[in-house]
Amino acid sequence: MEFILYEQKGAVGTITINREKALNALNSTVLDELNQTLDAVNLDEVRCLILTGAGQKSFVAGADIGEMSSLTKAEGEAFGKKGNDVFRKLETFPIPVIAAINGFALGGGCEIAMSCDIRICSENAVFGQPEVGLGITPGFGGTQRLARLVGAGMAKQMIYTARNIKADEAYRIGLVNAVYPQEELMAAAEKMAGGIAKNAPIAVRNCKKAINEGIDVDMDAAIVIEEKLFGDCFETEDQKYGMAFFLDKNKEKVKEPFKNC
Ligand code: DAK
């Protein structure tokens, strides 16, 4: 692949957008390769993904402005669909995805981070939706996901003013869960991913589904979604083992890895 690196260490896969010269901006090739990479993740082995950008300066500085500048309406729509399809694939990916945001996360960069389950960032991270300054609206779900994450008022302020915010403000408004010194970010992401990967995989997947699907419907419907996914965990090897381990009074026994079945 030209612009995507993928590495699997144990049960954790790391996807790196590797287009450092353009601050990892998303062009069509990056989006296509990201799509192919997600399709190739070995879900029998990998239980959590990390998404990051190459280099020390930028996570993703947005959609590629050079490529977009000459698009016709039809091409713009096709480009938007390509991005939205990949972002939605990330958002609904069966296992959790942690965005490790190591610098600029602007426009499509902020939007791709918001398609991940969890966002953590380095102290030099900068977030923003600068699109209205370029004559467009956020096009990869920014108007929708930002409002759901930080509330409509704050999302409107960020989007209408196109003002960038730094890591501490992103943390304060709930756009990221934690801020780390740059050199500690990947270790923190790997530690969190490793912690997730240790838990019962079917249960973790069902939690992701329950939260994602439940958040957009009313509470009565949401509870039904939860009930179904809760029920689904029963009779799995993981549920039988997890509960049997708790009930076993032999304190010497060491917990074995969950089997994902
Ligand atoms: N696209 C293309 N190239 C980019 C880029 C981008 N978004 N951001 C940076 N680069 C390139 C620069 O052109 C430069 O390339 P060379 O000149 O070296 O060839 C290189 O990366 C280094 O950038 P700078 O020289 O500008 O570096 P600085 O440190 O001075 O500035 C910066 C860093 C991040 C503040 C600055 O590069 C910047 O403002 N970049 C643009 C940020 C931005 O506006 N991003 C939002 C893009 S709009 C849609 C769906 C989605 C979208 C649109 C439509 N549809 C539904 C159709 C999404 C839109 C966006 O994301």
Q: Enumerate the strands of the largest sheet in spatial order, edge to edge or round the barrel.
A: 1-2-3-5-7-10
User: What string gives the helices and strands in order?
Assistant: EEHEEHHEEHEEHHEHEHHHH
Shape: globular
User: How can the largest sheet be summarized?
Assistant: 6 strands, mixed
- Tally of helical segments: 11
- Mean pLDDT equals 96
Report helical residue fraction: 40-55%
Key attributes of the depicted protein:
10 strands, six-stranded mixed sheet, 261 residues, four-stranded mixed sheet, binds 4-(N,N-dimethylamino)cinnamoyl-COA, alpha/beta
Quick rundown:
The mean pLDDT is 96.
Task: Describe the 3D structure.
The chain is of the alpha/beta class. The chain has 11 helices and 10 strands. It has helices at 28-40, 65-69, 73-91, 108-114, 142-150, 152-161, 167-172, 182-198, 201-214, 219-233, 237-247; strands spanning 4-9, 12-17, 48-53, 58-60, 97-101, 104-106, 118-122, 126-128, 165-166, 178-180. The strands form 2 sheets. Strands 1-2-3-5-7-10 form a 6-stranded mixed beta sheet, sandwiched between helices. Strands 4-6-8-9 form a 4-stranded mixed beta sheet. A hairpin with a 2-residue loop joins strand 1 and strand 2 (12-17). Helix 1 runs parallel beside helix 3 and helix 4 (108-114) crosses helix 5 (142-150). The radius of gyration is 19 Å and the shape is globular. The mean pLDDT is 96. Bound molecules: 4-(N,N-dimethylamino)cinnamoyl-COA.
